[in-house]
Design a protein that fits this description.
458 residues, three-stranded parallel sheet, sugar transport, Ascorbate-PTS_EIIC, Ascorbate-specific PTS system EIIC component, cell membrane, transport
């Protein structure tokens, strides 16, 4: 039984297979010729593998940068890391996590079929992370066995459909009407950024309309501008480490000249971003046409909810501004936590890049440059405070010194942990009941069959 669960978990937590499967089903539903089914199925798979390869390059180059900053500026604390905490969860609650994942994905499909929440969540690794969080929090509240799996699966499946819908009006602004949705559990931070942008960015030009003189026109090339910004980040970290802790430089660079190491690392990071962009274009080229088969034949009006990196090409300049602003917010949040005696949450470069960049894109869509900077900055503050607040909840199960990094994980960890801790399991059942009501009401109120909130504003 466990081997079967592991097999399904491996498939369903791998977005490349999930996207390929969805594309395959959609193309079959459209009665597409065999050779086009083959290419249309492989396209999203290869595109996502390319996106993952680029993300891997980015992450591999962000981790040394985080070490340089910690050691160079003598900062000690907790670095939020989804992968680290899920690896701990797997050892403690492996079967429960896999079961919640499978039930959650099935419930997401049922919700898309029978309610107006037509959003199919395709970011499988984030579903896996959320399943880990739910198994950990529910386990701390003394859930076990079938009740844990059913409650966790219901919450996962429901939020997978609800979270894209909440901010779909903002997502449509980001994509200029392309019918994709946000399928990433940093979503509340992105929507908050868009809302902040709408309040502070009146009259502010888009980040993509920055006026650059001819001699600086090379900065319009996203790969080059990203590389230059990251080289500066690395050089600052290297110089700080050379002053305080030069042995760290030797360990990270493998004996290479530290300044050459900094330059190569920053430029390699930019190559990773370029690979992500190429993968995104490949995904969208094949997935969206294939999804029409799902939307017309199997789940009418279905909308694919995809990874946050898919949105990077829509506003490449906002990606850099968002990352820098979010990281600054994370640093200030860390200092505030230190001043009030809290656990220091050291800014994790990976969440601040991916989530901060996306927050910048959403802030830019409603408030231009001011919106991108302000929205991503606030996102960065939350990426410090939320992980700190969720640490005690995870600590009850022995998850010491590690915590989830993204916005939605923090919100759900705190919400479930605090309510469950105050009024017990009945509080969790009340949350599930409220989610079910939220799913059913729009279908009862109106006879429309379109996806809720999937309407482009005039």
């Amino acid at each position: 039984m466990n081997s079967v669960l592991i097999f399904f978990q491996n498939i369903l937590s791998e977005p490349a297979f999930l996207m390929g499967l969805i594309a395959f089903v959609g193309l079959i539903a459209l009665k597409t010729p065999g050779h086009k089914v083959l290419t249309g199925t492989l396209g999203p798979i290869l595109g996502y593998l390319m996106l993952s390869a680029g993300a891997g390059v980015i992450q591999a180059n962000l981790n040394p940068l985080a070490t340089l900053i910690q050691k160079g500026f003598n900062i000690t604390g907790v670095v939020p890391n989804n992968e680290a905490v899920t690896s701990v969860a797997q050892k403690i609650l492996g079967v429960e996590t896999m079961s919640i994942l499978i039930i959650g994905l099935l419930i997401n499909l049922l919700i898309a079929r029978f309610t107006r929440y037509k959003y199919i969540f395709l970011t499988g690794h984030h579903s896996f992370f959320m399943a880990c969080l739910l198994s950990a929090v529910l386990g701390a509240l003394h859930f076990s066995g079938i009740p844990m799996v059913l409650v966790g699966g219901l919450i996962l499946g429901s939020w997978s459909a609800i979270s894209p819908a909440i901010g779909q009006k903002y997502t449509l602004k980001v994509t200029d009407g392309d019918e994709i949705a946000m399928g990433h559990f940093g979503s509340l931070g992105y929507y908050l950024s868009a809302w902040i942008g709408s309040k502070v960015g009146k009259g502010s030009e888009s980040t993509e309309e920055l006026h650059i003189s001819e001699k600086w026109s090379f900065l319009r090339n996203t790969t080059i501008s990203t590389g230059l910004v990251m080289v500066v980040f690395y050089l600052v970290g290297v110089i700080a480490c050379l002053i305080r802790n030069p042995k760290v430089i030797d360990q990270l660079s493998g004996g290479e000249n530290p300044f050459i190491f900094a330059i190569i690392s920053g430029l390699t990071f930019a190559v990773g971003v370029a690979i992500v962009y190429s993968g995104v274009r490949m995904i969208l080229a094949d997935l969206i046409p294939a999804f029409q088969g799902i939307a017309t034949k199997l789940i009418p009006n279905a909308v694919p909810a995809v990874d946050c990196a898919v949105f990077f090409p829509y506003a490449p300049t906002a990606v850099i501004l968002g990352f820098a602003s979010s990281f600054l917010g994370g640093l200030i949040g860390m200092f505030i936590l230190g001043a009030i005696g809290g656990v220091l949450i050291i800014p994790g470069m990976v969440p601040h890049f991916f989530c901060g960049a996306t927050a910048g894109i959403y802030g830019n869509s409603t408030g231009g440059r001011r919106g991108a900077v302000a929205g991503a900055f606030v996102n960065g503050l939350f990426l410090a405070f939320l992980p700190a607040a969720v640490l005690p909840v995870l600590g009850k199960l022995g998850f010491a010194n590690t915590t989830f990094g993204d916005f939605d994980f923090g919100v759900f960890g705190i919400l479930l942990g605090r309510i469950g801790g105050s009024i017990g399991q009945i509080g969790i059942y009340l949350i599930v009941a409220l989610m079910v009501i939220a799913l059913i009401l729009p279908t009862l109120i109106t006879k429309k069959t379109t996806a809720i909130n999937n309407i482009t504003e005039e």
